Amino acid sequence: MSSKNLDQFFHPQSIAVIGASNHDGKVGNDVMRNLNLNFSGQIYPVNPHDSEVLGYKSYNTIKSLPRAADLAIIVIPAAVVPQAVKECGQKGIKNIVIISAGFKEVGAEGVKLEQQLADLKNRFGLRILGPNCLGYITALPQINASFANEFPETGNIAFISQSGALGTAILDMAAAQKIGLSYFVSLGNKCDIDEIDMLEYLATDKNTKVILLYLENISDGPRFIEVAKKVTHKKPVIVLKSGKTARGMKAVSSHTGSLAGAAEVYSAAFKQAGVIEVEDVEDFEAVAELMSYQECPKGNRVAVLTNAGGPGILVTDLLPRYGLELAAFSVETAAKLKAGLPPAASVGNPVDIIGDALADRYAYAFGQIVKDKNVDSIIVVLTPQKMTQIAATAEAIGKQNAQTRKPVILCFMGEKSIVPHYALFKKYLLPQVNFPLTTVRALSVMTAYAAARNQAEKISKKKPLAAALVRKARVFLKQPSNEQSSRNILSLFGLPLHNAGLAKNFIEAKRIAAKIGYPLAVKVVSEQILHKSDVGGVVVDVKNEVELEKAISKIASNVHKGARSAKIDGYLIGEMVLGTQLIVGLKRDDQFGPVIMLGLGGIYTEVFKDVVFRIAPVGAAEAQKMLSELKIYPIIKGARGQKPLDESALVDLIVKLSDLSLALPEIKEIDLNPVVVLERGRGVKIVDARMVK
Length: 693
Prior knowledge:
The chain is α/β, with parallel strands linked by helices. The chain has 24 helices and 29 strands. The strands form six sheets. The protein has a seven-stranded mixed sheet, sandwiched between helices. Strands 24, 25, 26, 27, 28 and 29 form a six-stranded antiparallel sheet that branches.
């Protein structure tokens, strides 16, 4: 169902509270009190025992309401919630918040109750938030349709949380730090309204600049990526994802399967969608505040202004770790700083204006730095000395910063002396973080987001693969799952295989060897053997017929000893290919579908774990990004005088594997390892391939 019909849900003119109560400590009482504080519309309590609730006329039943309310909030025991929802539907109430718990989170009986809600939603065309949620809060107009204790200040951050408890904690922190919200929405069990609905709705909300998501799972992985890609072009989406390792992993037999865990797949999905992923609540809040208050930087050059050497050095040391660099001041800026600051001050970058700095010294130094064209963003560090003018310093920086579009982030370290000034920081739209590490991480995230948005890939629609090709591939899928059948399928899709042939015995092997030429590699082909080298099933650098016969005999003997139950289907006789070894793989994820892996190949793939992931479909631009994220990318580019390797051929291979993954959902895993990347213009060659169906 489209999220466009959520306007009335979040901006109702009348609200019915089913389970409203006069008794303190009851959720129905808390909800009524919250609504009473700032909701200007009609409130209809539904309570069969009281004629009035908190001064409002109460109604015995939903049916007896004078009209169909725009929204119903349900706070009654789970067992009777489906009946209440049914009565809402019959009354014509289309929007429902179910705060009540006791559904799928408690087991089989709860699952049945929640299925009843889903059926009723479809029957009556309802929009339902929850069950097992906290409710929601909107800033414009002010509506607290929840039992949260805090009503946040008005701002441009929308916070969507799957956890009500974490939601209340962040609401409390936001209140203390004067961080304003446009929406707070607790999703609960997501029987209807989910994170994708909220992304679509908030994408066009004029009061929302930044979207925060706390998620424990994602309702529809591919749909999430599709929607988030569109939203992140307009405004930043920041996600804190928990439960990335809680989902049970099925036994896997390929390198790709063992490396593509839940955390890696989720991170790949977020990256591909342009979503900013953070690791903890502190970063969550810091990045949100920074992006709420400031414009994105044009580059990664940072100026550091401090009244304390130690904290300034801490910030400086952290910058390169997170992709930022110290800005090199212009000659003019350096001269003005030297002329206007005390002799003991350090006028390089970081600029240390020493511990006795008052607001005027901060203002002067900041004024010179912010005008420098070599500076993209500024971190202002302050530690509270006895003479430090915290409020005046913030005000001086805030006034000057209002004249520029360069992002500024305060790292005013301390707590007792800093907390009283949060309202002032907000007045001048100055994000404040207490610690250097969080400060630098927040700025780096914002800088990376700006760079990614500027280089956003233009996705072109690809023609579907020919049906005849897919049908032919499915014929090969019915054959034994060995390397030869894998090669047949890969060949159909145009993936570059090394020159090789399948031999049943030494006589056939000689004929193949004569065509290919020595030296050769010989590998066992068996449906029961996936990791050939583990059982002695590979012999390389075979130089002549004598060595070829010995190699086949040796492999047969090794397999008999190391994998006694394995049936040998033959021997793959292939050319020796030398070059840089990579791995390209596929794993089909339950949540997101086909996941493509790229990384360092060979026998040390799982040791070094230099790998990156993307969710199919993967286009050429995204494949190129994958390459650039590898630690070995400088080698591919041609480090230390080495000739550059064939990047374009590797990109083409990744794209073709992505196409294959979408065309043949029967394939669960693929390992192409090694894929030998040759010098630029000479292509790539798949030396070993295996599939898991």
